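Box 3.1 A note on notation
Throughout this textbook, protein chains are presented in two layers. The first layer is the amino acid sequence; the second is a token string describing backbone geometry. Keep the layers aligned when reading.
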Amino acid sequence: VMSVVVGIDGTAASRAAIRVAAQEARYRQASLIAVMTYSGERTLGTPAGQPVATLGTGGDQRSAAEASLRNLLTEALGTQADHVELRVVAGIAGRQIVEAAREAGAQLIVLATRGSMSLLIGTVGQYVLRKAPCPVMVVPAGASAG
């Protein structure tokens, strides 16, 4: 089965990437796989001195990431969101996106840009561009699926 993988980080730019990825999947008659990662350790942005008990377990992080991914997909795609395969995995985003694409034999990886300048793709994007097993499409935040 042909597939398109979209890497999602929960930012508004992700919505544009989801819409473009869904459109690409339709063109190719391919399935759409949405990949979102969580750290699996400490929640990012948590002060280092905070007691471990307040940080939540990996299970909590996973379900929070999954809920956030579902919401983003529904905002971007409406009822079509039901047809998207969700992959919520602990680990480093770039590596997990490449891994998912490799496993699925993906034809395309779609990523959102970081920040307002469309030239900024951040460390995740750079990793994916270096290691991807297929073409990578980088979608600027303001893009709309045509």
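Strands lie at 3-7, 31-38, 85-90, 108-112, 136-139. The chain has a mean pLDDT of 84.
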